[in-house]
Amino acid sequence: MLDVGCGNGDFLRYLQRKSNHLQLYGIDYHYNKPHKGIKFFCGDIFNTDFDEKFDVIVNLAVIEHVWDIKSYYERLSQLCNDDGLVITMTVNDNSLVYITSRMMYSIGLKTPMERLYEKHHLNHFSSSSLEYLHMHAGLDVTDRYLTQLPLKAVDMPDSNLLITLIYKIALMILFSFERAFKKPILQTITTKKSKSSKYLA
């Protein structure tokens, strides 16, 4: 399994604790010290040479930062074995948090939307556009998941304690509505590369 954009390798170490039968690889711009049972690469997915192809390629919260989506998924497809899986997790542009932030922006409350659409987030996908992206890359969709973001994982703006508390309460309310209306902020798609898969120009 290859974890693209593996960060400090925590997910790979978690998988290693679950099973010692996995061959685990990770790549990131962040340098990771050598770790027994995990092979880390430091560099760019486009320019790094791998000696093998992979049965599973995972990329978690990566595609929103990638400039050239077409080339990125072409590269993932090249690195994936036939009948292998490509699993992508990213934010859901059609979640209630995003919808609410756009509504607030239209009445002059700009901070939530400006934080969600920060410059390092180059791409935003709804569930349908994420599915289209993978199908266009010649990957067959097998599963889709919508999941809730833990409140403690939210990056709050630097402000005073009162403002931070207001943000937390507002997000707790929004997250409860997201669960009720099944429009949570995270989405994951699992796709399969068949032998006939071919990237569509």
Please explain how this structure is put together.
The protein has 201 residues and is of the alpha/beta class. It has a domain of 140 residues: Rossmann fold, CATH 3.40.50.150. It is 34% helix and 23% strand. A 7-stranded mixed sheet has the order 3-2-1-4-5-7-6, sandwiched between helices. Strand 1, helix 1 and strand 2 form a beta-alpha-beta unit. The protein is globular.
Secondary structure layout:
Elements: E1 2-4, H1 10-18, E2 24-28, E3 38-42, E4 54-60, H2 69-79, E5 80-91, H3 96-106, H4 111-116, H5 127-136, E6 140-147, H6 161-181, E7 186-192
Parallel strand pairs: 1-2, 1-4, 2-3, 4-5
Antiparallel strand pairs: 5-7, 6-7
Q: N- to C-terminal separation?
A: 27 Å
Radius of gyration, in angstroms, nearest whole number: 18 Å
Q: How helical, in percent, are the residues?
A: 25-40%
> What is the assembly state of the chains in this entry?
single chain
Largest sheet: 7 strands, mixed
Low-pLDDT stretches: none
CATH fold-level assignment of the domain at 53-192: Rossmann fold
CATH class of the domain at 53-192, named Alpha Beta
**Bulk shape:** globular
